[in-house]
Amino acid sequence: MTSKAILLVEDNPDDEELTLRALGRSRIANQIDVARDGLEALDYLFSRGRFATRAPGTPALVLLDLKLPKLDGLEVLKAMREDELTRRVPVVVLTSSRQQEDILASYDRGANSYVRKPVNFADFFEAVARLEIYWLALNQPPE
């Protein structure tokens, strides 16, 4: 049995690379797929557009930035929670925003966690490793 993928939704190439490196360093077995804007994330989740031929199923985890082109992270989160297929997929908002309104809006729309991206490289790696341990190893999702 193969493990479910992780969907990283990130438009900043530097943050994408850091996140992928941090996940790789943790030696996770999950495939990591990347969407670089909000519409691409929804296309991935609902197997449409360039992802129409993607194998059916939901990711094990979505790491979602808020500030995205085309459709922001809050709108992606709202669409996920309104759909039966994706409403229970764990979503960790992984963003640089410290704004209280972003934190409240994320939880109001159904985020499972809100993590601010640390500025320090080592702290960023540690934060991603802890996310991986909790959401992929310890958390028990519904079948």
Please describe the topology of this protein.
Elements lengths: L5 E4 L3 H13 L6 E4 L2 H8 L15 E4 L8 H10 L8 E5 L4 H9 L4 E4 L4 H18 L5
Parallel strand pairs: 1-2, 1-3, 3-4, 4-5
Helix pairs in contact: 1-5, 2-3
Structural features, described:
The protein has a single domain (6-138), classed as Rossmann fold. The protein has 143 residues and is of the alpha/beta class. It is 41% helix and 15% strand. It is built from five helices and five strands, in the order βαβαβαβαβα. Strands 2-1-3-4-5 form a five-stranded parallel β-sheet, sandwiched between helices. It has helices at residues 13-25, 38-45, 73-82, 100-108, 121-138, and strands spanning 6-9, 32-35, 61-64, 91-95, 113-116. The chain is globular, with a radius of gyration of 14 Å.
Kindly identify the CATH topology: Rossmann fold
Kindly report the spatial arrangement of strands forming the biggest sheet: 2-1-3-4-5
Q: Which architecture per CATH? A: 3-Layer(aba) Sandwich
What is the first-to-last residue Cα distance? 15 Å
Helix content: 40-55%
CATH superfamily, by name, is Response regulator
Number of strands: 5
**Proportion in β-strands:** 5-15%
Q: Radius of gyration, Cα only, in angstroms?
A: 14 Å
Report the average pLDDT across residues: 88
Give the count of structural domains.
Answer: 1
Indicate the structural class.
alpha/beta
Q: Which spans of ≥5 residues are poorly predicted at pLDDT below 50?
A: none
Count helical runs.
Answer: 5
> What CATH first level would be assigned?
Alpha Beta
- Major sheet size, sense and barrel closure: 5 strands, parallel
The gross shape turns out to be globular
